[in-house]
Amino acid sequence: MKIIVTGGAGFIGSNFVFHMLDTYKDYKIVCIDALTYAGNMSTLKSVADDPNFKFYKADIADREAIYKIFETEKPDIVVNFAAESHVDRSIEDPEIFLRTNILGTAVLMDACRKYGIQRYHQVSTDEVYGDLPLDRPDLFFTEDTPIHTSSPYSSSKASADLLVLAYHRTYGLPVSISRCSNNYGPYHFPEKLIPLMIINALHDKPLPVYGEGINVRDWLYVEDHCRAIDLIIHKGKVGEVYNVGGHNEMRNIDIVKLICKELNKPESLITYVTDRKGHDMRYAIDPTKIHNELGWLPETKFADGIKKTIAWYLENREWWEEIISGEYKNYYDRMYKDR
Ligand code: NAD
Ligand code: TYD
């Protein structure tokens, strides 16, 4: 079995590459990644010399480059993680989100049609459902919840999902889609909430909480997400959407306080800053379908996962110190100075 994994130098994609190489000793994993600001070759250091692993630096929206790779590799399965993934960056400048997330998805699926494929899997997000009100804890996102997006990021992901379903109906492409809640764990890029707060707290820098910090996210340890995708590509039904989430809703402020406690840092570092535009209030996944059909359940409890994640950031300073010393500094100033 040969699997193309796009975006494998990013957070979830790299964790998926490690999971697959560990789990299936006879599979070949071919990673395609453009190495944008979010992609890092140092993340893939541990598998670089694995004979079952191969890497191509390429943009998924570059049709010629993608067709060439498919012609050479003839993959059985494609799992598309490659995306622009940060909501705040999409608010600042949406265009690259449209190119990578929508056009890139179409190019990959065209390559699948041209060269033949057993399965094209689209890694999507719960953000395509929009948000839920804080005063209705009884409501959850199911696969039938209407698409209702808020940010340029989530709109680009929803557009890609619609295209994936259209390619199934129109061309009979064997597709599947997973819509997962917020992930956390090793190799999470420092711009996102949990790593940003860990790294700032370690430097005794202000911890910038948007608005009142009462927005709720449904957090899942990254390895649990990778196991869900593994199950879907092997046993999930073609043409179906699967929601992935572990019923672990937390308010942002409570996460930040927990990180302070774990690192023995004062809560006085917490600074409330101007809210994100169009900020979604609450995400909450109903994972009944993937549980009933595929037997998936999350294995890592948040209390353990957050400890493991903090320990990873303490033990892998080199990885994130290199990132935050470069172009990231400009991003951080643009986003947080005078906020
Ligand atoms: P990430 O930003 O950490 O990584 C994205 C990777 O894609 C990077 O390695 C980057 O170099 C690569 N990439 C970007 N544009 C590319 C292009 N044009 N061609 C080839 N490669 C390109 O993102 P992530 O958090 O690992 O998210 C992976 C996927 O999972 C995304 O599709 C995202 O929408 C989805 N998702 C993320 C979360 C989350 O909590 N992080 C939750 C649900 C779904
Ligand atoms: P983020 O990690 O960007 O993920 P998403 O927007 O995809 O859910 O943000 C998670 C939550 O944390 C979101 O409600 C915004 C909030 N947040 C802050 O309060 N401060 C920050 O510096 C960041 C990056 C996020």
Q: What can you tell me about this protein's structure?
A:
- By secondary structure, the chain is of the alpha/beta class.
- It has one domain: 3-Layer(aba) Sandwich (Rossmann fold), CATH 3.40.50.
- A 7-stranded parallel beta sheet has the order 3-2-1-4-5-6-11, sandwiched between helices. A two-stranded parallel sheet has the order 7-10. The protein has a two-stranded parallel sheet with strand order 8-13.
What is the CATH T-level topology? Answer: Rossmann fold
Task: Order the strands across the largest sheet as they lie in space.
Answer: 3-2-1-4-5-6-11
> In terms of per-residue confidence, which ranges show pLDDT below 50 for 5 or more consecutive residues?
none
Biggest pleated-sheet summary: 7 strands, parallel
Question: What is the CATH-assigned architecture?
Answer: 3-Layer(aba) Sandwich
Core attributes:
binds nicotinamide-adenine-dinucleotide; 13 strands; 339 residues; 7-stranded parallel β-sheet; binds thymidine-5'-diphosphate; Rossmann fold; 43% helix; alpha/beta; 12 helices
